[in-house]
Amino acid sequence: MATIRDVARAAGVSIATVSRVYADSPAVSEESTRRVLSAGARLDYWPNAAARSLTTSRTGALGVLLPDIHGEFFSEVIRGIDQAACTESFQVIVSGSHAHADALVSMGRSLRGRVDGLIVMAPDEACTPAIAQLARSFPIVLLNCSASCDSCDSISIANFEGAHTLVRHLLSLGHRRIAIILGPAGNVDAEDRRQGYRAALREAGIEPDSALEFAGDFSESSGYVAADALLRHASGVDAVFATNDCMAIGLLSALQDRGTHVPTDVALAGFDDIAVARYLNPPLTTVRVDAFQLGQRAVSLWLAHRQDRSVERGPVREVLPVRLVVRGSCGWRPSAGVGKADSLRERAVPARSRAGVVPFGAAGDQPLSSGMPAP
Amino acid sequence: MATIRDVARAAGVSIATVSRVYADSPAVSEESTRRVLSAGARLDYWPNAAARSLTTSRTGALGVLLPDIHGEFFSEVIRGIDQAACTESFQVIVSGSHAHADALVSMGRSLRGRVDGLIVMAPDEACTPAIAQLARSFPIVLLNCSASCDSCDSISIANFEGAHTLVRHLLSLGHRRIAIILGPAGNVDAEDRRQGYRAALREAGIEPDSALEFAGDFSESSGYVAADALLRHASGVDAVFATNDCMAIGLLSALQDRGTHVPTDVALAGFDDIAVARYLNPPLTTVRVDAFQLGQRAVSLWLAHRQDRSVERGPVREVLPVRLVVRGSCGWRPSAGVGKADSLRERAVPARSRAGVVPFGAAGDQPLSSGMPAP
DNA sequence: TTGTAAGCGTTATCAG
DNA sequence: CTGATAACGCTTACAA
After folding, report:
1. Does the distance separating the beta carbons of A369 and B219 come in below 8 Å?
2. Whole-number average pLDDT of chain A
3. Which site in A119, A179, B36, B53 is 20 to 30 Å from A195, CA atoms measured?
């Protein structure tokens, strides 16, 4: 592999000049530039990133630490990060499977000298000290983390508001006994959604009944399992709020297996609006989280942070808004609806059947995949 | 940030000793090791990756170039890559959006000194020269690429076999006039699927009719649009093979909007078995591609390649097998089935309703998300 | 077992 | 505008 010296020799200039040319430094004569570029192209030369970052102490890369890169949600987050990083000419180094605090720290270590900063997602509260440790070595943006570290910017989802809005919607449809399937213990998203649920009930004059709060862990199977407990307890439950869509899907399967009809016998709602949600039968009413944007914003936050690193300022905490998506699983029908600013209703007859071309005319719906999809 | 010199000073040893300790070099006394480690921990030291890779000319990182990281398929590929790389202590640098040959080359350039090799996915034939160029700088594994470069190992999907098996299945159900929705022009996956389709027809004594081959580009909307052409041409089409699931979904929507019932009026099948497929109504018969494993195998191939770099050998070409997944969209019913070794049938009454706990007892079905799913 | 010193491929400083 | 040359932080012969 050709080095800067080879090019310098071939072009008949010094290595400094070659360096200047490849750094777009202004003070190089046209003649030199031409000769360097020509020699560089001939030798297939390009500056070595490691050497460059050793002297500049900038890497042009951004590390991303995730607990697990399973499922659509994470894939969208990564896509958002990559897209935003790419437009700023940053490379992205991803790493999944960092549920443990130890893994988090050792991963961060091995990234030293390799990235200019980190975007960390660690929904488990146990990771807080690990993150604090990492924050001493890198500028960090926390993505939807329970850990709130003093020096870190963070971005999170409007979990409370989303759950609150969703439950109010259920109430507006006349549901009274509303159960909830909880997320994993210690998960801050899950907890915030629970709080939103409780708050909405209280505002409606209903005291939250802990007997209506069922265990879950965000997995599809936990939703399936919850059905038994739910039906055992069935004394008049008229709606269920599963704190994420995966559990809603599991629950839906279980209910159908047991001959319980949704939404006639019981209404069902989820959270996240993953791609499958609108294909379920009935289509799932849920809360849309724009995971792509979440990733994008995390990068923006990080870039902003490093811009005014000098300026002394408190940590920025951004909250990504969410949106209620009303579909059929809660019994809502066009004629029966109650006006609601922040809700998005998909028409019973989707716009596509009229437009004839646009498959996802129903406002807010996105195709499963755009651009070049899976082969 | 502490350097090796700081640690050496604090531990009262030379930098060489510190280096040896952090490289797990054997010839260091216990006493020195202890002091170095203690000083290192106190100073929060860890070797700088850039400096290290500059001297060793190894980076411990693997670059991944994808055309677009949209959709479940790619997310699973990345997950497979990350998982496999992680167990071998390799970092993964991903980069999406490289449809153009130019972007591919410039991306590869900027990765120089940053990665030890590349996994490249570029389904467009126009990228072949760009890949050849990259291959001069890096050991490369081609992922499902049209470009077959002499010096590159590659892994791809059994597109031909999958399509062939699927169409045979359709034939076995009595379908005769079988249409196909094609993928993007120049996409090798799409083309291979078409060939598999044609071959199966010919073997059944049916001459492929190009009037039954409809344009598409793997996007959901192209599937939707194809419905019109299809119905216009409807002279007895009894089955449609959409060359990927996204198009099948679009097509299904369109057919339902037009009052055409699947599978009664027309059978429908897809390719990929993305997560949504089994939630459609009717559940989609399709061909399962294990994207996770595809990613894993790509890494294995790459690791093997770099192991015996010295050994002279031709390029390894691996093909990932696929599997027919029979659901309801083609009119198959348990009683009517014809025995078939490589087909996987999901029971009309899923196993879960019997097991009572396992949500996806139906063999081969996977949950949407395991582990820690989307919040 | 340990230390010294020569790189690794760049960039940055400072004269010319 | 250009060219020496000293870092950057680490590994690795080679010596001791």
Report:
1. yes
2. 85
3. A119
A284 vs A277, A280, B372, CA distance in Å?
Answer: 5, 6, 21
SS3 A249: helix
- How far apart are alpha carbons B360 and B348 in whole angstroms? 13
| pLDDT exceeds 50 at position B100 | yes
Query: Architecture of A159-288+322-355 per CATH?
Result: 3-Layer(aba) Sandwich (3.40)
- Reported as a single tens digit per residue, the pLDDT across A226-277 is 999 998 876 689 999 999 999 999 999 899 889 999 999 999 999 999 888 8
Provide, as residue numbers in chain B, all residues whose Cβ is less than 8 Å from the Cβ of A254. Answer: 352, 359
Mutate which: B57, B105, B352, B369, vs A, most A CBs within 10 A: B369
What local confidence, expressed as pLDDT, does residue A345 receive? 57
Taking residues B277-293, report their average pLDDT: 92
Contact B374 A218 (CB under 8 A): yes
Q: How far apart are CA B118 and CA B115, in angstroms?
A: 7
Q: Domain B61-158+292-320, what fold?
A: Rossmann fold (3.40.50)
For B133-200, the DSSP string reads HHTTTS-EEEES-S---TT-EEEEE-HHHHHHHHHHHHHHTT--SEEEE---TTBHHHHHHHHHHHHH
| A360 Cα to chain B: minimum distance (Å) | 8
Q: Where are the domains of chain A?
A: 4-47, 61-158+292-320, 159-288+322-355
Q: What is the pLDDT of residue B128?
A: 86
> Is CATH 3.40.50.10490 what the domain over A4-47 is classified as, yes or no?
no
